[in-house]
Structure formats: C-alpha cells, structure tokens
Amino acid sequence: MDSLLVGGLVFVFLSTATSTGLIVRARLPNHHLNAESRDVIRLATAVVGTLSALALGLLIASAKSSYDNAEVEMRTAAARILLLDRVMAQYGPETDNARQLLRELIEKRLSRGWTAETTDETSGKAVGEYQDIETVQSDLRSLAPKDAAQRALQARALEVSGMVAETHWLLVESGKEGLPWAFLTVLVCWLSLLFATFGLQAPANPTVLSILFVCALSVAGAIFLVSDMANPYVGLVHVSDAALRSAIERLGKP
C-alpha cells in the first residue's frame, strides 16, 4: 500500500476518534466526567500511551534497520560488480562479451528500478536479471584458461559473480517482508483509543482542537515514515542509486 495513503488513513482514524470523543463528552452526564473519573481516565490513557510509544518506537527502529541494510546492500552490490569487471579485465579480451553483459545488467537495473518486482519480471525481450547474471556466469565457465594466473582469475570471477547472484535473491526474498501490518493495525487501534480519550476530556475550543489536529498529523507523519522506510527502494524516502551510477561509469575500462 502507498505510504502516503497509509499516513492519510491513520490521520483520518485519529481525527475520527477525537471527534467521537468530543461528541460523547457533550452527551455524557456531568458526574461521568468529575475529578475522580478524569483521574481514572488519565491513568488508563497513560497505560495505552506507554504501550503505543513502545510499539511505535519498535516500528521506527525496524524500518530504520531495513533502510540501513538496504543502503549497505546497494553499496556492496556496486562494489562487487566493479570487482567482477576488474577481474574479468585482468583475465584478457576473452571476457569482453561477459563484461558487456554485465554492463547491460546494470543499465537495466537503473532503468527498471531496484525492487524485487522489477528484477524478476520479464517483458518482451527483457529477461529477468537473474538470467542476465547466469549468462555472465556461463560465459565465464566456458573460458579456457591458458595458465595458472588465468585459472585463478576465472575462479575469482565465478566466486564474485556468485555473490552478485546471491545479492539478487536476497533482494527478492527480503522484498516480500515489508511492513508488519498486524502490528501496525494494533498500534493504530491503541492510538485511536488514546485520541478518543483526548476528545473525551478536552473542551471544544479552537486552541485545543488545533493542538489535537497537530498531534494527529504528527503521529500520521511518523507512521508514513515507518511505512516508507520499510520499502527502502521505492517511495519518497528511498535508497539512492548513486553507487550504481558511479559503478557504471567505471565498467568496461581497460
């Protein structure tokens, strides 16, 4: 689901909960909101608020971890691709075709995006990227080394190409994880209950309503960031592909 849509829905839920609290407040008998009742409501609100804060903190930490891991994966993949190209260059002109295939793989990745969906899809003559790297490996296996140095370079190239392929499959598997929706749903329910109690206790004047509006917007913004960072290769907050663009400038050089 789109991160902006998630944040917007959370804001709507919290605003609705606050409005519900204000409506219920206007219809309750006065003795239901006396000093003793307010003290009990505040204690219950403190428990729910603490749970909500802990849950939101865990979601933010998880999303930040996913984002940081994706950034490391991007840089690692770019470094391995450059290393593979340099090893093939040292082998000799026999690897020119494999080096060209490697460059085309990176160009495709930059044009189609770095996501699990685009890396595996096939459209027309465009095959999935796992097939591209397997073609490079096939070319490397077909080489006939003339001496020990070339045999060592061939083995090293196959090893690095295997790591590049492993990065692809890690992306495919991790791309299916995403945001823990059950956890997020429970959190939104807690937050809605919390904002309903705010409306239940708050006088309906412009200052209070403005503060509650800003609070709901802030919480919705935090949920938006969590949702966006949980999918680090797409969205407004995404991992930069600068490492790949820098790598492609060095590919194919003697």
Summarize this entry quickly.
This protein is mainly α and 254 residues long. It has helices spanning 3-27, 35-91, 96-112, 116-120, 129-141, 148-174, 181-201, 206-229, 242-250.
Number of strands: 0
Mean pLDDT: 83
Order of helices and strands: HHHHHHHHH
Q: Based on CA inertia axes, which overall geometry fits? A: rod-shaped
Largest sheet: none
Category from helices, strands and their pairing = mainly alpha
List low-pLDDT spans.
Answer: 122-127
Cα separation of the termini: 45 Å
Number of helices: 9
Question: Could you explain the architecture of this structure?
Answer:
There is one protein chain. This protein has 254 residues and is mainly α. Helix content is 78%, strand content 0%. The chain has nine helices and no strands. Helix 1 runs parallel beside helix 7 and helix 2 runs parallel beside helix 8. The chain is rod-shaped, with a radius of gyration of 27 Å. The relative contact order is 0.20. About 2% of the residues have low confidence.
